[in-house]
Specification:
The protein is of the alpha+beta class. The chain contains four helices and six strands. The chain has a six-stranded mixed beta sheet with strand order 2-1-6-5-4-3.
């Protein structure tokens, strides 16, 4: 199960943006809990794909030009997979670029993501958003 879970998560990061989004949506359990870190502009708890898309991804797309996610390390243990990497992008309103380290901890059941918790160095994101 560990390899299958790892492959599921890798597929949400390692393709084109369109493929990653398609793979992520297919991997989300209907009642998935998605937790964005306190201090992040998108901090909060989101339940289900619609809340995640509206509360996180739509806002990322409108707030940041060239926003990207690069994973440098994955760790898998049973039903949990962690991804470690960095975000980069330029804040549309301020024109300032940022680079921030993150970790995402996923929990899967029957091949579907039931929980994701983010930890992020939110300071670079906050600074880039300042005029």
């Amino acid at each position: 199960m560990t390899k299958r879970n790892l492959d599921t998560i890798r597929a949400t990061y390692e393709g084109s943006a369109e493929d990653n989004a398609r793979h992520l949506m297919a991997a989300l359990a209907p009642d998935v809990l998605w937790i964005e870190a306190a201090g992040s502009p998108y901090a909060g708890r989101y339940v289900g794909a619609a809340q995640i898309v509206q509360g996180v991804f739509a806002r990322l797309s409108s707030d940041w030009a060239g926003f990207s996610v690069q994973v440098h390390t994955y760790l898998a243990d049973g039903d949990r997979v962690a991804a470690f990497g960095r975000y980069t992008g330029t804040h549309r309103a301020s024109g300032k670029a940022m680079e921030a380290s993150f970790s995402h901890l996923y929990q899967l059941r029957d091949g579907l993501i039931i929980r994701m918790e983010q930890v992020v160095d939110s300071y670079p994101m906050q600074q880039a958003a300042q005029p």
